[in-house]
């Protein structure tokens, strides 16, 4: 891991509410997290705990009702929707969703999808293609697939393209919201390996999942979200081997990917190898 200790993301006392005034409901409460360059932080929690809301707030897709968000040193807390759009377009912060079709234009060949953010940034087409291809190779996508439409790829291949697309602008921070949840076990392990490799590249990653097993081998630190609050944040190995908060203990004790009979032996072995590497 290469980290210079400088926070790429600083979130302090974040509050998010949903709903109109009288039925206003608090979904995130006093959430604080800081992520440094080259660091991967896993955010885990059960369904409805507020994981996606956290991601959406950091991407400016939902408005925070309180607290502060600093991205690469810039206070974005009071940004207007237009400023947020400009920030996302600059490619400083990128995202990968569970369903890669959400981040890829179904009518654009994948190579075009990949170079689009670079063209928006003013990079010339020739250089954009070169850089795009380099990232597709990095996520181990066969060059004969570059001209295909997203619908002509498998789910795992599409997710590799989405990861390459997130990387191509060399962002400071990538937020991955359940990036492997929809994949079969072979593709899941493939994407986890790629994410692990990224740790050495200086990019900060936030890896959101309900599944501790997926996060375990990739994250340096783990933050456990419970009913809209981080109840435990710490070194991944420490949280996994000796969780302190009762809810974290429950999560660790029932981590499905590491324990369930539904997970194949090959998947469990591969995850253990990642965990021990
Ligand atoms: N746009 C919205 N308007 C109102 N309530 C919402 C909205 N989006 C999410 N919620 C509610 O906020 C809470 C947190 O949702 P969120 O999607 O952040 O949870 P999550 O931890 O990502 O869950 P999952 O793992 O199922 O995706 C849930 O109770 C959800 O119903």
UniProtKB/TrEMBL annotation:
Gene3D superfamilies: P-loop containing nucleotide triphosphate hydrolases. SMART domains: AAA. Its EC number is 3.6.3.-. PROSITE patterns: ABC_TRANSPORTER_1 (PS00211), ABC_TRANSPORTER_2 (PS50893). One of its GO terms (biological process) is peptide transport. Belongs to the ABC transporter superfamily. This is ATP-binding component of an ABC-transporter.
